[in-house]
Amino acid sequence: MNTKLIDWPTFIGALVVLLAVTLPLILFPEAGAEVLNIINNFVTGNFGILYLALGLLAFIFLLYVAFSKYGKIKLGKRGTEKEFGSFSWAAMLFSAGIGASILYWGMIEWAYYYQGPPFGIEPMTKEAIEQATTYGIFHWGPIAWALYTLPALPIAYFYYVRKKPVLKISAATKPVIGKLADGPLGIIIDVLFIFGLLGGAGTTLALGTPMIAEGVRELTGIPVTLGLQAVIMLLCTVIFAISAYSGLNKGIKVLSDINIWLALFILAFIFIFGPTLFISETTFTSLGLLVDKFFRMATWLEPLASIETYPETRFPESWTIFYWAWWTVYAPFVGLFVARISYGRTIKEMILGTMIYGTLGSVMFFGILGNFGLYLQLSGSFDVINYMNEYGAPATIIEILNQLPISGFIVLIFTILSVIFLSTTFDSASYILAAVVQKRVPGGEALRWNRLFWAFALLLLPLVLMFIGDLETLQTASIIAGFPVMFIMTLLGISFIKAAGSDIRAMKEYRSPNIYIDRRSIENKKEE
Ligand code: NM2
């Protein structure tokens, strides 16, 4: 076992934080859950505004960067071709950034909004339906994808323009914090990033597993118990451990391809054999609502709730704040990935690509899966809401699928898809985590034992959460872990502007008419 390459302070720091959170939860589950809820209420109650502001600012900032001089910067040399065509680029982006959660929430999120709409709207009314069909797309839409793209900016810039590949998030903040990035502050940044990703992944795995377990129950008759769920979690971990072990080109790529084709199959099947017209019209209409209410949704914090007589919905805390935190904890990780696949694109193409393709992908899932369920509810053919309140969301998701023709086969494909969707997210996550705790990554691949280690470390928090938690506790993991990552995100945005800005100024001094920047040429000219 080669241990020389390991960056021990970061490795141990991350492990200590992970154990410091999970061990007390294992030993004192009830008190632990209560403490988590108290922290959650404190953070969302007092700092919710920060999460929402970060989302909105990231969105505006990225649009500004895309259409400014920075947007013209090419990631690569003059004349380089794009490494990946738009379809595979978008497919990889989606497979890495989105896990099984889109199957879960795409199917069922509307049912929560329908029963607990925002803006003081009466539950289960026509107005509530409008919110129900739009809010899911909003929470997986342009702001969410902007959060994902923000860290990709400095990382891609260092990779392909300055040609100094960044493996650690701390290194990408160097233009702002300077040498501190190489010292304890750098370690803290990396550890917080790792902790954030472990928290976000905890939410993902703890949500996805019960859904897979319900699929297995439907297919085999084995009743859903915590034991079954633990076995499923372990099996999924073994799959993504194998895939992470075999590396980027084999395991991860093969799974991503299968992932996209199976997902497209399920979506096409439901679209064609479900209520095609209703799905099309409702999705189209909700796009209009999204544009219409965009800023209202992006800023709604329910301020009157602090006044006692005003009935509180906790909608912002339960949804928008939670979502922005969840996207934030994944963002540096997805940023590393997006940067790597964007060789040959301009910054503008990278930004608009993630925001547009990402949002379109989400619209497809939410539009087709969600509106299918909504149709069953409204047409009276299956009372989704009642079923959900009685048997819970995971069982309802499978029961919605059961309303389709050849449903046994569809449930089978859906369950396999969920496992692969989880795996594609988790194997890239363990891959990146392993790289972050190494000093160097020869050949671009972290050590194998290290990759395996993180694959299993990712399992710890969700296992614990699942045993102690309800939905709120699961969401809490992302919200709390996302808090420090918000500040790292801000650093990353400023880093990009500082680095690119100073390079562009240097280019201008040498009267280069091109925005295309090759750092080496600047340095060579200086030496001449
Ligand atoms: N996000 C996209 O669980 C997953 O699907 C991974 C979830 C942040 C809501 C990411």
The DSSP helix count reads: 21
Low-confidence stretches: 521-528
By CATH, the topology is: Amino acid/polyamine transporter I
State the share of residues found in helices, binned by percent: over 70%
Q: In total, how many beta strands?
A: 0
Q: Write down the overall geometry.
A: globular
Present as ligands are:
3-carboxy-N,N,N-trimethylpropan-1-aminium
Distance linking N and C termini: 47 Å
Count of structural domains: 1
Q: What do the pLDDT scores average to?
A: 88
Rg, Å, rounded: 23 Å
Write the layout of secondary structure elements.
Layout: H1 8-27, H2 29-67, H3 86-97, H4 101-115, H5 126-139, H6 142-149, H7 152-161, H8 169-172, H9 174-177, H10 184-220, H11 226-246, H12 248-273, H13 276-299, H14 315-341, H15 347-379, H16 384-391, H17 393-401, H18 407-436, H19 448-468, H20 471-509, H21 519-527
Helix pairs in contact: 1-2, 1-10, 1-19, 2-6, 2-14, 2-15, 2-20, 3-12, 3-14, 3-15, 4-5, 4-15, 5-13, 6-14, 6-15, 7-14, 7-20, 10-11, 10-14, 10-17, 10-18, 10-19, 10-20, 11-12, 11-18, 11-19, 12-18, 13-15, 14-20, 16-17, 18-19
Protein described:
The protein has 528 residues and is mostly helical. The protein has one domain (8-517): Amino acid/polyamine transporter I. It has 21 helices and no strands. It has helices spanning 8-27, 29-67, 86-97, 101-115, 126-139, 142-149, 152-161, 169-172, 174-177, 184-220, 226-246, 248-273, 276-299, 315-341, 347-379, 384-391, 393-401, 407-436, 448-468, 471-509, 519-527. Helix 2 (29-67) packs parallel to helix 20 (471-509) and helix 10 packs across helix 19. The N and C termini lie far apart (47 Å). The model is unreliable at 521-528 (pLDDT under 50).
